[in-house]
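hi! just following up on the protien thing from before. the input was this:
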Amino acid sequence: LSHLYTLVIRSDGTFEVLIDDESVKEGSLEKDFDFLVSREIKDPEAKKQIDWVDEKKIPDPEDKQPEDWDEIPALIADPEAEKPDDWDDEEDGEWEPPLIENPDYKGEWEPKMIENPDYKGEWIHPMIENPNFIEDNKLHRRCNQCTHIGFELWQVKSGT
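and the predicted 3d structure came back as:
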């Protein structure tokens, strides 16, 4: 099955992608592609405060592990298993029933989590203007003599 892919690049720095003459994406050459360095960069002078707390939840200090929690095994002997009739203790060794998952086992204990009263929110690194950024209003002009560009796209399926 063949399709016609079209990339329209406009002189105002915008683009449009068409598949079989239907628009599937529009955007800005500067914002949607990495042709230029970023307009803004993270401020190298800015540092997160030492006392900044960005954990939303913390373990509840009041929550205690139940006394018998660690005594419940993850696996138990299958109570419905029976020693096979042809089992020979001298040849095969002492018979042990197979192990199954214990329905009473609740996993490793972890305290419940509560809202952190000291939570200050996610720290956002301040941005500054990039001194290396140079505006380019002619992003659409990468090849002055070009009028069309062709791409041949192949899709190969595994095993072919």
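The two ends are 16 Å apart (CA to CA).
The helical segments are 29-32, 89-92.
cheers
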